[in-house]
Amino acid sequence: MAESQNESRNKYKVYRPNRMKDLTVTGREGTIIKNSIEWAIIDMENDGWAFFNSITVNKTCKFNVDNVSECFPIGTKVRFNARMWLEPEGSTYTDQDVRSCRWIVNSVRTSLFVPIPVMHNSAFNFDSYNVPPEILPSDKIGEAVIGLMKRLKSINGLPITQLLKTYTSEFSNIPVNIRTVLSNADKLRILVRCLPRYFILTDHDTVLAYNCREKDDVDLEIGKLIPVGWRPNEPITVNVGQNTHIIEHPTDCAAVVEEILAGPKPITIALDCEGESLGKTGKLTLLQMSTSTGQAYLVDVLAVPNPTTFFAEGGLKKLLENPNVIKVIHDCRADNAALFHQFAVTLSNVFDTAVAYTVIMEQCQANRSNGGSLEHLCDLFSKPLVTKTKQMKKKMAYVKGFWSRRPMTPEMIKYAAVDALSLVPHVYDNMKRLIHTSWQSRYDTLITEKLLKRK
Question: Cα–Cα 20 to 30 A to 24, which of 76, 176, 204, 397?
Answer without folding.
Answer: 76
